[in-house]
Structure formats: structure tokens, C-alpha cells
Amino acid sequence: MDKPQMIEHLHEAVNYTVYDTKWIPLSAKFLVLGSKPNSNGILDIYELNQEKLEKVKTVVKKAAFKCGTFGASSLRNRHFAIGDFEGRLQVLDLERPDMAVYNVKAHSAIINCIDGIGGTQLDCGAPEIVTGSRDGAVKVWDIRQGQEPVVDISPPPQMGDGINKSNTRRDCWAVAFGNTYNDQERCVAAGYDNGDLKLFDLRALAVRWEATMKNGVCGLEFDRRDIAMNKLVVTTLEGGLLVYDMRTQHPTKGFSWVEERNAGRSVGTNGVINGPKATVWTVRHLPQNRDVFLTGGGTGSVRLWKYEYPDRRVIEDSDGAKEGVAGKLQMVSAVTLSSQPVHSFDWHPDKLGLAVAGAFDQSVRVLITTKLNTL
Amino acid sequence: MSSEKKAIELQMQVRRNATEYQNSVKDLYSWEKDIKTREEAMKNAPAPTVDSKLPVRSHVAKSNEPTNKPTSQKAGSPAGSSASTPTEKQDLPQDALAQQHKKANDIKDRGNNYVKQADYERAIETYTEAVEVYPYDPIYFINRALCHLKLERYGNCVDDCESAIALDKTCVKAYYRRMQANESLGNNMEALKDCTTVLTLDPKNIDAKRSLERINDRLRKNSTKNGPNFSAANDNLIDILPFDKPAYKRSKQSMRRVPVVDIVTPRGNQQEPQQLRISDDEIDKIFNSNCGPFTEVKKDNTQKPIVKPEKIVEIVEKPKQTTAQSKVIGKSPASSEKEVKSVSQEPAKSTDADNNLKSVEQTYLKDSKEENNANKPEKTIKIAETAKPNSKPEPQAKLPSPTAMERIPAAPAGTAQFYVTWKELSAVQKYHYLKSIEIPNLCKILGASFDSDTFSDVMQTLHDFYVPNKEPTTAAVLWEISKNDEFTILAMLMSKEEKKMVASIMAAVKTFPKSNANLLDKLAKVYSVA
């Protein structure tokens, strides 16, 4: 009975649709990105103040905010990169949020997902932001370089009229940086609505690996961004949760993986899994333990998972080629937070067990998870 | 017992969890305080120096290239060399001269920056400084030459380029800039020399290629100013001017063919066979495509090929006619007289065909379609009659030619075949074709698609050929046609001319020997010809 417990510590109802929640590094503050009913973008900063949440600042811009990241900003200057519904990428200085530090029309359609890297980590290359959009493109940005992306991974231009174009271009739903273990190496994983998963090598500027899931890819995260690729967690529609072992790439089979098909369903009173196959919206690794991660499901439940490595991570097949061995997934804890999907979640980078979650019931929750250190 | 135990355990668990939660919340509050003070401290701390050492990704490749090949950079443009400076600085110079070189390079980089800012005076000063430090690298001269060029001091530019060339004879940029300066000075011949040098050193230089054209043009223009240097116009040559009349103003007449003949100069003739020593067979072997022995296709005068096929048609008709004639002979016993007549018809036919031919030719040439073809045969018959005695033996001589037989289409088996063939035939052919059909079958072959066009065609054929030939089957053909299902409508819709034609046919048939008066009466009724 010494399992970790997830407890809702604070709850804040807001009057807009929440799209993303993020802790501000090295502070007791988090920010909430959302879309107001008049489709303006809103950014609220809340501060933990013992039993209550205190709203510190509100920023409203004309396009609804979809996603944001601190990944490319240093601890000190707190430059928050935001992607919005009109395809604009802006980097706001949270001290002076009125004027964007960097503002670029990054995509022709909504930016679904964003990830950043290089802000705080040492010796892992330039700070960069990656955005994925409904227009099918994945673009990597360096705010030191003007209005052009440093890498643009777009599907080839399609023949035919606009109607056909919209049909053939895949919608990019998830992006994640990884493999940044030195100044040069860097990878971007991108997941698409048709279940395609692509791994782009930014140093070689080539597709390193491709796979296709059964359902659209909603969430992607490497267990650590700043190490040589170790694990990649993929979440999909209809409750798919896959963990790829990214250490060993077999020449033909690629990476090996372990799959959990019921990750999106809610867990009943006696631990009985019931309910419909629900989307697994998001995955977040615990910053303090890379083998523990949390998934947010479509039924409003969140689950804590632990990945257990196999005895041997690499075996040689008959041809002498090395092949990875996937481990096992163990569900540590599950709790239903909301009646609506929990689609955004963020662990505090400095405080073990502290997290903030946003759900589609127009509320944000601060969670405390106990006994994580025992895992 | 066990349930009690369980209940107690559960309570214990809940209590433990509660204390756990309380502890963690306490912990959280203390952490909050702690983090807030740390945050405050961080805010008050001096702003961190932003180290932009790491290159922007899209720039990495560019800055790497010059380090890989520093030699090419030396001859490269000043703009390209500035990017490579950080790596050059890292190289430790070995001796004094190299050190000087390095120093000069640094000065040059400063100069390059001035060039980027378009401050050419300062740049010239800087490059001069660099030259004073290290006078053995042509790059400083080239760069200074560029500045002079931009400031339009072409004399200085040429001087600098010459010193650069003295240091490095293969310095493409120096030649190119001297060319530019010479061009601006108006020394076109000098510029041309430099341009060709550039192209020999760097054959792929597109700018130089363009310049070469430009300079050549200018030289040509200058030479034409002094007077034309090409030969006077030949008398035989005709200037064909382009015309831009709107379509409605253009001549309606068809185009005339003008034979175009290549004038081959004797020199050209001598050269060609020397170049083409490979035989065709060898070429075939090489390309692995044997196309058979080579046969030359000779082209005659343009109008002949059009005439020829008509002649063939003419030949074709004769034997058929005669064979048909022989049939008739077989049928009718008392026909020695007729035979002579029918044979005598042959030359008439040939002349008729000739006449047709001529008319075709005329229409081809003059585009005049006004001539009345309907009157023609009668005229030709008259001509034929006058020509009878001379041309009698001819057809018999031509009779056995085997190719001629093939040209007349075989009698149709069905309606569709008949119509397809019918449309393609000339007037004379139609006659023979119609005759080749057995009369009892005619009605069936004409079938349901018998229309007014075909009807008038058939009438025309009867009128033009059957009647003059005094075919005994004419009346039978008419009768057979009248049996067709479509005939009643067609007869009603007959035009005046057609009626006239039918009447004339009837009248002619009446004069035939062995004409069946009964049948004729019936025909007159059916065709409603009074």
C-alpha cells in the first residue's frame, strides 16, 4: 500500500477553454494558455500561495493560444514561446508580455504542438523551437535568425486544387525534441493524424525512421531531451500507449516497442478498466525519474506508469544485427480528475510530485503526488 | 474477525495517507517560500550574458565550408572570406611572414566590412594598409580593384588588377575586373582579351559568357558604324518580310508552294564527306537498330504526286468495265453491234476520266468549284465519239493488267459495308460498284439507312453512266430501288432537279432496245414522273 497517491491540491475554474498549462521554471508560478469565447488568446499567470491560487498577470492577444514552451529560454529571461490558432509563433518575455520578443507567421494553419530545447541545458546545441501544424509542416526555429525557419520539414507540394490539397496534407499533432546529447546531434519526432510517426535527424537533415500507428498520434515525448535517445513514448487516439526503446535501431525492424491498448480508459472503483476507448491526450515524464511518466486520458483520468527495463536491452538476431528489446509497462496509479479529457499536464521541474493539469472542463488543477521517490 | 482487521487496516491506510498528504503539503508550502526567495534573488541578480556562440543551424553548413577548403577562399570573393575569419584566427602562424599574412588578412576583413557598408574610400585605405603589411597576396589587390571599380576609377582598377595578375597568373577575378574596367573605358578589344582569358581559366563562368556576348555585340556594332562589313545583297535573293495582317485582310487564295533549294557551296561539299566516314551499317551496329537497307526517297515536282493516283484510278476502271461488259455479252445473244459500241465506250471513259482529272487539277490550283460536273459527261461523250476510231485498240491492250483488278472494291456483302465503301468512291467508281451488286440483292443492301443523299447519288450514277452506256439493267435497278422501304418517303421528298433527272433516265430507257413498257409504266407511277 505504499503506492504513490495523486491528490488534487488546488482547483481553479476559469472562464475560457484551457489549451496548455506550464510551470515557470524556478518559481511557484504556472501559466495557463487558452482561448476566450471571443476566440482571443489568453495567458494567465498564477502563483501558488499556500491554500489558494493567486492570479499574477493576464495577457490577452487577438488569436487564441494553443500551445507553449519554455524549452528554448534560459532560466533568467523567461521567454515563453507560444503557438496560436492562426499559425503565428511568438516568443513573449513574461516580464514585458505586451511586445513579443520574436513574432513570426510560422504556419498557414493552427499550430497544434510546440517543443523547445537548448535553453537551460549546457552543451546541447543552440536553443531551438519546433512547431507542428495543421498545414502538415514541421518547422524548427531559432529566434536569432529572422523570419525564416532553420529547418522546414514540409510535405511535398500537392498537385490539384485546394480541396484536394487539404485532404492529402497530414495534420501534425505532436512534436518532440530528443537525442540532443552534444552540440550537433538533435532529432525531432513528429506524429500525424493518420498515425504516421517520423523521426527527423536535424544534423543530417534526413528522415531517420518512420512508423505508422493504428491511430492518430496525439502525444509524443522522449524520456529526456538532452541525452542520447533512450525511450520515446507515443500516445494515440483510441487509447494507444506505446513506448519505444530508442537505443538500438535494427536495420529492418527499426525500434522495438511495448504497447498498452487500454491506457485511455477510466479505472473503476476496484481497478476494473471500463468505459469507452478514450484518447490518450498527453504524456509527461517525471523530471526527476525518467522511467516514470504520466498520461492524461480522454475520460478525465490520469495514470502514472513505470517502465521496467528488460534484463538485456539488446540482442543479436541471426544475421548478427542488433535489435532492441522492449521492457514492460506497469501502471502505478490512476485517478479520475475530471469529467472531461485531461489534455495538458506539466510536472514542476524543481519540486518532485508537484504538477499542474488542464482539462476541457474549463479548470486547472494543481496536483500533489506522494511517494514518487519510492518508485 | 478478518473483516474487522480489514476495516482497521483501511482506516490505518486512510490515516497514513492523510498524514502523508499533510506532510507533503507542508513540504510544499516551505518549498513555495524557498522558491520565491530564490526567484527574487535571481531577478535581482545581473542579467546573464547571452552567449550566442552556438551557430544558428541553417548557418552551420555555410561556415563549415570555407574551413574545409581554405585555398579556394583565397581566390574567392571578399564577402566569402569574411565568414571564414574565426577559423583562420585559430590557426597559429608559424613564422614572421605568415604572421604578417595573418595580420594583413585581419586588416582585409575590416576592409571587407567596409565594402559591405559600401564605404569604398575607407575600404581602399584598409586594403592599401593590408598590401603594405603583406604585398604577396593578390586578394588585397583584387578587392581594392573592386572598390576602384565601384568608384569608377577605372585606371586604378586596371593597375590593381595588373599587380594581382603579376602575383597570380590564374587569378580569374583580376582578369574579370580588368575586363569590366576596360569595358567601361571603352577598350573593347582589351576587354575581349580579358574575357577570353577568364573563360579559358573558368569555362563555366556564366557572367563571363554573358560579358563575352555583350563585348562581341559592341565590337560588331562599332564596326558596322564605320560601314557594313558583309557582302552586298545577291540579286537572286528575295527578302521575305514578315506580315502581320489581320486574318480577314489576308488573301483568300490558297498558299502556293515555293520550292526552296539549298545552295551548297563547293567548300562545304568538300568538307562533309571527310567528316562522315562512318557507314550507315556501322551506325546501325552501334545503335543496335538495323532498319534495313537504305533507300532514297526521291521527291518529284510538287504537283505530280497528286496527279498520279488519279491516273491509277483511270486504269483501274477499264478492265472492270470490260468484264462487266463481257457479262452482258453472255446474257444477250444479239449484241455484236452493242459490243462494238460498248467497247467504243472505253476511250470515252478514259478521256472522261482525264477530263475529270483535269478538273480536279484545276480545282486544286484555282480553287474554283463553280464548274458544273453534271454537264461534263455528255460533253466528254461527244469528244469520245469523235475520237472513237483512233482509240479503239487501246483498251484491249490495257485489259490484262492485274493490278487494275484490285482497285475496284468487291461487291458488298451487307448494308454497312455498302455505305462505308460508297462514301469513299468517285463518281466513276460508284458506277462500277453499283453494277457489281446483283440486282435482286440491291434492295436489301440499300436497307433501312437508304437516305436522300445516297438516293440522289444513285440517280446521278444512273443518269451519268448507266444511260450513256445503255445499260439494259437500268430499269431493273430503278425498280429495285423503288422496292426499298424508305423509298416512298424519298420519292416524296425528291427535289425538282432529281425529278428531272429521273424523267430523263426514263426517257432514255424508253429508247433502249428491249425496254419493258410495262415496267416503265410502273416506274413512272412509283417515281411519280408524269
Structure notes:
With 375 residues, chain A is mainly beta. Chain A has one helix spanning 162-168, and strands at residues 6-13, 17-23, 29-35, 41-49, 52-61, 65-69, 79-84, 88-93, 96-105, 111-117, 128-133, 138-141, 151-153, 172-178, 187-192, 196-201, 206-212, 217-222, 231-236, 241-250, 254-260, 266-267, 273-274, 280-286, 289-297, 301-308, 314-316, 322-324, 328-336, 342-347, 354-359, 363-369. In chain A, the strands form nine sheets. Chain A has a four-stranded antiparallel β-sheet with strand order 1-32-31-30, with no helix packed on it. In chain A, a hairpin with an 8-residue loop joins β14 and β15 (187-192). The radius of gyration of chain A is 20 Å and the shape is globular. In chain A, 52% of the residues are buried. The mean pLDDT of chain A is 88. Chain B is mainly α. In chain B, 71% of the residues lie in helices and 0% in strands. Chain B is built from 27 helices and no strands. Chain B has helices at residues 2-44, 57-68, 70-75, 78-83, 85-90, 96-116, 120-133, 138-150, 154-167, 172-185, 188-201, 206-226, 266-275, 280-287, 304-331, 336-366, 376-391, 393-398, 402-407, 415-424, 427-436, 439-446, 452-469, 474-482, 487-492, 496-511, 517-526. The longest helix of chain B is centred in the N-terminal third of the chain and has 43 residues, at 2-44. Chain B is flat. Chains A and B meet through loops of A and α1 and α2 of B.
In terms of topology, how is this protein built?
The complex is a heterodimer of chains A (375) and B (530).
Chain A: E1 6-13, E2 17-23, E3 29-35, E4 41-49, E5 52-61, E6 65-69, E7 79-84, E8 88-93, E9 96-105, E10 111-117, E11 128-133, E12 138-141, E13 151-153, H1 162-168, E14 172-178, E15 187-192, E16 196-201, E17 206-212, E18 217-222, E19 231-236, E20 241-250, E21 254-260, E22 266-267, E23 273-274, E24 280-286, E25 289-297, E26 301-308, E27 314-316, E28 322-324, E29 328-336, E30 342-347, E31 354-359, E32 363-369
Antiparallel strand pairs in A: 1-32, 2-3, 3-4, 4-5, 6-7, 7-8, 8-9, 10-11, 11-12, 12-13, 14-15, 15-16, 16-17, 18-19, 19-20, 20-21, 22-23, 24-25, 25-26, 26-29, 27-28, 30-31, 31-32
Chain B: H1 2-44, H2 57-68, H3 70-75, H4 78-83, H5 85-90, H6 96-116, H7 120-133, H8 138-150, H9 154-167, H10 172-185, H11 188-201, H12 206-226, H13 266-275, H14 280-287, H15 304-331, H16 336-366, H17 376-391, H18 393-398, H19 402-407, H20 415-424, H21 427-436, H22 439-446, H23 452-469, H24 474-482, H25 487-492, H26 496-511, H27 517-526
